[in-house]
Amino acid sequence: MKNIIICLLSSLMLAGCVNTHQPVRNGLVHIKFDIDENGQPLNLRVVESYPVGYFDEASINAMAKWKYEPKVVNGAPVKLLNQRVKFEYKITE
């Protein structure tokens, strides 16, 4: 009898674990970062994303390759802090 109950519970658990989710097709990632005197983005950090964590790594990797025109104050480039960028993902067939 004990084996039958365990088998039934196992079957119910497996039936409940079937993945019925559709593939992720849309998302967004908000990144906060600084820009150094050479125009390189630094301190990249995700402050919001949906679905959480799904597009984060791709967004950070892409941004790490970007180069900005440095801000110049009194003839000298300066660091910019707490900049933001938003990535939107819309995947179509």
CATH architecture descriptor name: 2-Layer Sandwich
What is the rounded distance between the termini? 51 Å
Q: What is the number of helices?
A: 2
Provide the structure class: alpha+beta
Mean pLDDT: 83
Sequence of strands across the biggest β-sheet: 2-1-5
Net shape: elongated
H/E order of the elements?
Answer: HEEHEEE
What's the structural domain tally?
1
Oligomer: single chain
Low-pLDDT runs of 5+ residues are 1-19
Number of E-type strands: 5
CATH topology, anyone?
Fusion Protein Consisting Of Minor Coat Protein, Glycine Rich Linker, Tola, And A His Tag, Chain: A, Domain 2
CATH class: Alpha Beta
Beta-strand fraction estimate: 35-45%
Please tell me about this protein's structure.
- With 93 residues, this protein is of the alpha+beta class.
- The protein has one domain: 2-Layer Sandwich (Fusion Protein Consisting Of Minor Coat Protein, Glycine Rich Linker, Tola, And A His Tag, Chain: A, Domain 2), CATH 3.30.1150.10.
- It has 2 helices and 5 strands.
- Strand 1 and strand 2 form a beta hairpin.
- It is elongated, with a radius of gyration of 23 Å.
- The N terminus is likely disordered.
